[in-house]
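My current task is to audit a protein record that another person submitted. Alongside the sequence sits a line of tokens, each denoting a local backbone shape. Please read both lines and tell me whether the tokens look consistent with the sequence. Do not assume that whoever made the record got everything right. Thanks in advance; the entry in question is below.
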Amino acid sequence: MWQRGGWVQVPTGARYAHWRIRYAPDGTLLFAEEAWYNAQLKPIAAPKVLVSAYTPPNELTPEAQHGF
């Protein structure tokens, strides 16, 4: 599965919950971070990145942004 940062191997039965923002009735901003859950809906560690993402160098990419 592609996730920001690279390709990851999803554990069997694992589920991913995207981050969300909501406003409470009083206007308070609520934020839920992204998270991974097992088949029993218990939080688990994020899967390891198999192949890291990077931006290849080119004439439009600043030197500090290409990851080398």
The two ends are 24 Å apart (CA to CA). The CA atoms of residues 22 and 28 lie 8 Å apart. The longest strand covers residues 20-23. The chain has no helices and eight strands.
